[in-house]
Amino acid sequence: MPPADWKELLADSPHIFKSRPENLQTLAAPMTSALGERRQRPTLYPSPSPNWIPPMSKLGEYAVFLREARKTFRTTGAILPSSKFLANKAVSILRDLPPNARILEAGPGTGAVTEYIFPKLRPGDRLTLVEIHEGFANELRRRFDTDPKWIPHKKQAEVVHAGVQDLPKDEKFHAIVCGIPFNSMSPDLADDVFGSLFKLLLPGAQLSNFEYIGIRRVSVPFVKPAERQRMKQVAKVVRKYVDKYGVKDHRIAFNIPPAVVHHYRVPAEANGHA
Ligand SMILES: C[S@@+](CC[C@H](N)C(=O)[O-])C[C@H]1O[C@@H](n2cnc3c(N)ncnc32)[C@H](O)[C@@H]1O
């Protein structure tokens, strides 16, 4: 039988604690919970608000990503969120934007890249996150409500649960950061989604997206001819937009899998570009 009170326990073992009595409560706190009591946590550090929720750890984010990716691998097209190296390169298009800029992130997933957009947001800017998968959209909303890193940006941001191709085309953006996995789509859908992104850009605006390096080459020996054909056609679609609007490609080795980030810019003079 454990002693009914932690003070009793301390009295039985005075040799364990040579500290001054005022420190004993601090030292004994884990013991009290081992005895099944619930006591106020000692305040070694300033106490956070009672509603404080720790920021989502990277492991926690990976777990949510894996759980949701398993449900919809076709539209997620990845097994892990992007690395900070990839994210930094993807958001590097967000400079020299006019005041009150409108920024779109298409396919934010758990928000691995979104966190790198936050430091670029200035007062007056607006961020729209459009995510096709409901589980991810809910996760993003949860983070805006509870994650201390996200809460300050909640007023500037909105989460839209939709395919980016379904956004009204009269909404225009100064920059789009896109995480959508074209390589796992049909060629027609890839063309539709890619074309929609360019229709949503204002003249002179920029877009970034990424694709994994070598995925096609690695999987070709293992897939059926029809799948091989699909991958080839999608590659052509991507190439069409890279050739038309591509500005620069950046290889990112520190990502799983390694990736290339494409930067694009639409012409400044006309908007009938797509
Ligand atoms: C490869 S994950 C990238 C997630 C995150 N941006 C990252 O880099 O870790 C692709 C994301 O795009 C979303 N997605 C796929 N097709 C989409 C579409 N048509 N419109 C909006 N989101 C889409 C998926 O649900 C998934 O969250």
Summarize the structure.
The chain is an alpha/beta fold and 274 residues long. It has two domains: 1-47, no CATH class; 58-265, Vaccinia Virus protein VP39 (Rossmann fold, 3-Layer(aba) Sandwich).
Characterize the structure shown:
The protein has 274 residues and is of the alpha/beta class. The protein folds into two domains: 1-47, no CATH class; 58-265, Vaccinia Virus protein VP39 (Rossmann fold, 3-Layer(aba) Sandwich). It has ten helices and seven strands. It has a seven-stranded mixed β-sheet with strand order 3-2-1-4-5-7-6. α8 (187-199) packs parallel to α10 (225-245). The protein is globular, with a radius of gyration of 25 Å. S-adenosylmethionine binds next to α4 and β2.
Looking at this structure, what is the CATH superfamily of the largest domain?
Vaccinia Virus protein VP39
String of helices and strands: HHHHHEHEHEEHEHHEE
Bound molecules: S-adenosylmethionine
Arrangement of strands in the largest sheet: 3-2-1-4-5-7-6
List segments where confidence is low: pLDDT < 50 over at least 5 consecutive residues. 1-48
Give the terminus-to-terminus CA distance: 76 Å
Number of strands: 7
Strand content: 15-25%
Which structural class fits the helix and strand makeup?
A: alpha/beta
> Domains counted in the coordinates: how many?
2
Helix amount:
25-40%
Number of helices: 10
Give me the Rg, rounded.
Answer: 25 Å
CATH classification class of the largest domain: Alpha Beta
Task: Please name the CATH architecture of the largest domain.
Answer: 3-Layer(aba) Sandwich
Arithmetic mean of pLDDT? 82
